[in-house]
Amino acid sequence: MTYNGKTVLITGAAGGIGSRLSQAYAAEGADVVLTDLESSGGSALAQRIAAGGGSARFIAADLTDPQQIEKLFQTIDSLHGGVDILINNAGKGIWKSPLELSVEEWDQVLNLNLRGTFLCSREAAKRMKARGGGRIVNIASTRAFMSEPFGEAYGASKGGIVALTHALAASLGGFGITVNSINPGWIETGDYEALRKADHEQHPAGRVGRPEDIARACLYLTAPGNDFVTGTNVTVDGGMTRKMIYEP
After folding, report:
1. Is the domain 7-242 a CATH 3.40.50.720 member?
2. Is 25 tagged catalytic?
3. Which candidate, 118, 116, 92, places its Cα nearest to that of 105?
4. Any idea where the domains of the chain sit in the sequence?
5. Whole-angstrom distance, CA of residue 49 vs CA of residue 52
6. What is the pLDDT of residues 91-124, one digit of tens each?
7. CA 13 to centroid of chain Cα atoms
8. Which entry of 3, 25, 154, 220 is annotated as an active-site residue?
9. Could you tell me the pTM of the whole model?
């Protein structure tokens, strides 16, 4: 697979999964635009990628602000002429009892995770339509379908992303734009070596996931010749959501 000449925008690019996505697309020859908060370290990441021979540029933006989203895409227009691939990776969670979760906290999560994904997709699709097509991948979560306590806002936002994905696929297919989502399971972005044997063994695949697992799925879904997979939701969780679990 090659992404030479393709402009790829990755949101939430400075974090664990976003960082690996940025590196993976740069290694495949793409012109990568990283966006995250100014304080995220995204600028340093872009510099490291460029120092290694990749094409990377950081543009700071707060995706809870619709005006900053519009400005982000206008800047990309002036630098790259548009966007070919969008990876909606930015997101956050607030883990709090629904009896105590405030409206402001609910809105923080939904405005970034769900509304931000829609607004970035809308702006990207305008450019992709003019360019004859494109690829959008939305990073959802297995928590769109299963939950632990206190994840109401996060789960609702990720469930919304899954529904938004197939709606956009239906709306944008006539423009040559594919839209898919990925449900990561346990993807360890910290010290992988600190994980317990039991952590790995609970997965049917025999290990906890790594950011590279999500990068490989994204590269598949956005491959230039892959125009027949759209509106789908790919779960990358080592088989955990297909495992029946009973207390011993």
Report:
1. yes
2. no
3. 92
4. 7-242
5. 5
6. 999 999 999 999 999 999 999 999 999 999 999 9
7. 9
8. 154
9. 0.95
